[in-house]
Design goal:
The chain is an alpha/beta fold and 281 residues long. The protein has helices spanning 2-59, 92-107, 117-126, 143-158, 206-280, and strands at residues 78-82, 111-115, 129-134, 165-174, 177-186. The chain has a 5-stranded mixed β-sheet, with helices on both faces. The two termini are 27 Å apart. The mean pLDDT is 86.
Length: 281
């Protein structure tokens, strides 16, 4: 009888877990749809800013700015890392950190700027020079948080304390697929300028304007990557919770079968005892 009680207890516990994972799957699906929409809305601004940067930089080859200059010194690069704040999202962070650590090892780098609690926890254990961090930004982060961190990164770059800046985040391919990305965002490599050449009048001057536009472009790129990473997190969590719900259902079915077999064995034993007692009388 104790075996029956333990099996019944596990069944009830698994059913409760199934309800939780099913609810988390629905919540993650709702959040993913909302964040994906925000990500798509932020994309045109970043694209426009990049086109403007390319037009300004390409239309004035005689004018230079540190944001566009390749540096050949021995200064190390900085990694701007975007991770999730919470777990229960499969191998999303694990794959991202694997790509990141390999890239950092190749460049012998240790300077970091972090958005996300999981990355912060990782580098508190592994070590690294964290110049700034933000965490627990929620599902609708404020773009000003990105501006604050990027201002520190830009100051280090303009003061020639770092040679490059790499942005690390998860790219949203589709609901089932998220790809870890490590891409260089500084120095900026402008696209080919548009074929239509405009006779711009710059105010106050071209160098100042180029720097300000480039900063806004970098902020837009990082903020877009942050929204994309949140969409990846919710997508991965939705898939993980769906898998957990299906596994819980399979376990419940197996436990019900085991319970019925154990119950049948108890009934058979009791009947045998009754028959044996009747024969003895």
């Amino acid at each position: 009888m104790s075996n029956l009680s333990s099996i019944k207890s596990v069944i009830k516990s698994t059913e409760k877990t199934k309800k939780i994972t099913s609810a988390m799957e629905l919540v993650a699906a709702s959040k993913m749809a909302r964040t994906k929409k925000s990500m798509q809305q932020a994309l045109p601004y970043a694209q426009t800013m990049r086109r403007l940067v390319s037009d300004i930089a390409g239309g004035n080859p005689e004018i230079t700015h540190p944001f566009f200059e390749e540096r050949k010194g021995k200064k190390e690069p900085l990694y701007f890392i975007i991770s999730s704040d919470r777990g229960l999202c499969g191998s999303l962070n694990t794959q991202l950190f694997k790509s990141l650590l390999e890239h950092m090892k190749q460049n012998n780098a240790k300077k970091l700027c972090i958005m996300g609690n999981k990355a912060l926890q990782l580098f508190k254990r592994f070590g690294g020079e964290i110049i700034g961090f933000k965490r627990f930004l929620g599902d609708e982060p404020d773009s000003q948080e990105v501006v604050t961190l990027m201002s520190k990164v830009v100051d280090l770059y303009l003061n020639n304390e770092i040679s490059e800046v790499y942005l690390v985040f998860n790219e949203f391919v589709n609901v089932m697929t998220q790809k870890p990305v490590v891409e260089r965002i500084l120095p900026i490599v402008p696209d080919e300028p548009s074929k239509v050449l405009w006779d711009y009048i710059y105010e106050p001057d071209c160098e100042t304007l180029m720097g300000e536009v480039a900063k806004r472009y970098l902020n837009a790129v990082v903020y877009g990557a942050l929204l994309e990473n949140i969409a990846c997190e919710q997508s991965a969590r939705m898939v993980a919770m769906k898998s957990a719900t299906e596994n819980a259902q399979s376990l419940i079915e197996e436990l019900n079968l085991a319970y019925n077999k154990a119950r049948q064995a108890v009934i058979t034993t009791e009947l045998s005892e009754i028959i044996a007692g009747a024969d003895a009388v």
